[in-house]
Design goal:
By secondary structure, this protein is low in regular secondary structure. Helix content is 13%, strand content 12%. It is built from 1 helix and 2 strands, in the order βαβ.
């Protein structure tokens, strides 16, 4: 999909530990940068199977160290 809504190309957000957030990758969400499910309709129209990226924040103590 193309960014036809002129959404910002970069987004930063602090997510509290334990919270799960779905971020839009189709660039068409009315709730951008968060996913609102618009990709489902677009996938039916275009055949692109592009869904959101889902991030779950974990407490710092649970983060994996590089190499583990």
């Amino acid at each position: 999909m193309i960014n036809t809504q002129n959404h910002p190309r970069r987004h930063e957000e602090k997510i509290p530990a334990g919270k799960r957030v779905a971020f839009c990758r189709c660039w068409q969400s009315a709730a951008f940068p968060h996913c609102d499910g618009t990709h489902r309709k677009l996938s039916d129209q275009t055949g692109d199977a592009l869904g959101p990226v889902v991030v779950t924040a974990v407490p710092a103590a649970e983060e994996e160290k590089p190499g583990e």
